[in-house]
């Protein structure tokens, strides 16, 4: 006879693959995945990004060949990042809302090609400013908050007017959520465009491949005066609560895997909002590199990371693994 107490015997509850699946509060589905894509201003481009294996910069004319097969496999949403390589950058990021720029052209093209596809756009100035920072600067190089939020709201509104279903400011300027929500409402788009805030965005080492891909590294200094310090749980909680009050429709935590505690906090602080996390470029590159080094199986590890995001409380995951998950979730 076993000497274990009855309450000590757990294995009977998960001895079968199906009973194991019932242990999840939330299961990964295709609709939870948002695919980050890079759109550049050479309309015929398809250029691989060496630090982001398997990802490319795409020109607007190539979107059909790129996105068409993914939509067939069940892709439901994308988030667009502009990569201007041929434009004149300035201190206000003027090319960000150029009506002929890659993001606005891509919004229109994707809306026309795939009416059911949900199109989000990242909103930031760093890809478009001469100094590479995410806002407008004072002469001494520090952030000038009020014009920064105003300029970012202008850019967000242009993307919404071009047809984006969602605008997602990643700049971390104080006051930008309120400024964007106000601008959307005043333009009659309050009920037509979702505002997803990168609320708890940390100053992370994991954005390196993205900055390569988007050409958005700052020309001097760093982003530590606007992105959150990695050790700052309290600030993250305050930023989440602030963005809820200012009118965000979706809260995001970024990066994801090293910040699962913040995701869990966000789920508790904003229980009535969808909660997103961004498995950023460096996280993706780490998972791929580890698999290539034989540390683990790629697919098993990719599932383990995304399942941890769901367990922590996410309902939406931005991940470069989206195309692979569309296959894996069918198997
Ligand atoms: C721009 C922006 C960044 C990312 C998303 N939007 C880079 C940064 O803040 O330096 C990172 C995404 C990724 O690494 O995949 N502000
Ligand atoms: Zn930026």
From TrEMBL:
UniProt binding sites for Zn(2+): 124, 126, 134
GO molecular function annotation: porphobilinogen synthase activity; zinc ion binding
Pathway assigned in UniProt: Porphyrin-containing compound metabolism; protoporphyrin-IX biosynthesis; coproporphyrinogen-III from 5-aminolevulinate: step 1/4
EC number: 4.2.1.24
Domain of life according to the entry: Eukaryota
Keywords attached to this entry: Heme biosynthesis, Lyase, Metal-binding, Porphyrin biosynthesis, Zinc
InterPro entries: ALAD, ALAD_AS, Aldolase_TIM
Protein residues bound to 5-aminolevulinate 2: 281, 320
Catalytic residues identified in the record: 201, 254
Keyword Metal-binding: yes
Cofactor: Zn(2+)
Catalytic activity: 2 5-aminolevulinate = porphobilinogen + 2 H2O + H(+)
Gene Ontology CC terms, in alphabetical order: cytosol
One GO-annotated biological process of the protein: protoporphyrinogen IX biosynthetic process
Enzyme class: lyase
The UniProt record lists the keyword Transcription: no
Chain positions recorded as 5-aminolevulinate 1 binding sites: 211, 223
Function: Catalyzes an early step in the biosynthesis of tetrapyrroles. Binds two molecules of 5-aminolevulinate per subunit, each at a distinct site, and catalyzes their condensation to form porphobilinogen.
Oligomer and partners: Homooctamer.
Family, per entry: Belongs to the ALAD family.
Protein name: Delta-aminolevulinic acid dehydratase
Organism: Phlebiopsis gigantea (strain 11061_1 CR5-6)
Lineage: Eukaryota, Fungi, Dikarya, Basidiomycota, Agaricomycotina
């Amino acid at each position: 006879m076993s000497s274990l107490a009855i309450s000590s015997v757990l294995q009977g509850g998960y001895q079968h693959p199906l009973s194991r699946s019932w242990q999840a509060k939330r299961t990964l589905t295709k609709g939870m995945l948002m695919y980050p894509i890079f759109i550049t201003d050479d309309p015929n481009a398809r250029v691989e990004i060496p630090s982001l294996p398997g990802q490319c910069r795409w020109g607007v004319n190539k979107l059909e060949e790129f996105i068409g097969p993914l939509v067939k496999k069940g892709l439901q949403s994308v988030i667009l990042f502009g990569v201007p390589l041929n434009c004149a950058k300035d201190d206000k990021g003027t090319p960000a809302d150029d009506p002929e720029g890659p993001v606005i052209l891509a919004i229109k093209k994707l809306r026309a090609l795939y009416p059911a596809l949900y199109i989000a756009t990242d909103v930031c100035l760093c890809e478009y400013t001469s100094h590479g920072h995410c806002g407008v600067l004072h002469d001494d190089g520090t952030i000038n908050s009020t014009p920064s939020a105003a300029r970012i709201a202008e850019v967000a509104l242009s993307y919404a007017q071009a047809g984006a279903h969602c605008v997602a400011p990643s700049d971390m300027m104080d006051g930008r959520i309120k400024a964007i929500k106000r601008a959307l409402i005043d333009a009659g788009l309050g009920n037509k465009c979702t505002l997803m805030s990168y609320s708890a965005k940390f100053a992370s080492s994991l954005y390196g491949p993205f900055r390569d891909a988007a050409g958005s590294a700052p020309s001097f200094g760093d982003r530590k005066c606007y992105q959150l310090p990695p050790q700052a749980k309290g600030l993250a909680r305050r930023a989440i609560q602030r963005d809820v009050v200012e009118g965000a429709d979706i809260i995001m935590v970024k990066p994801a895997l090293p910040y699962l505690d913040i995701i869990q906090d966000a789920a508790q602080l904003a229980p009535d909002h969808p909660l997103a996390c961004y498995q950023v470029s460096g996280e993706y590159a780490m998972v791929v590199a580890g698999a290539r080094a034989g540390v683990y199986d790629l697919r098993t590890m990719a599932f383990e990371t995304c399942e941890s995001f769901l367990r922590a409380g996410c309902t939406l995951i931005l991940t470069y693994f989206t195309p692979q998950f569309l296959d894996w979730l069918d198997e």
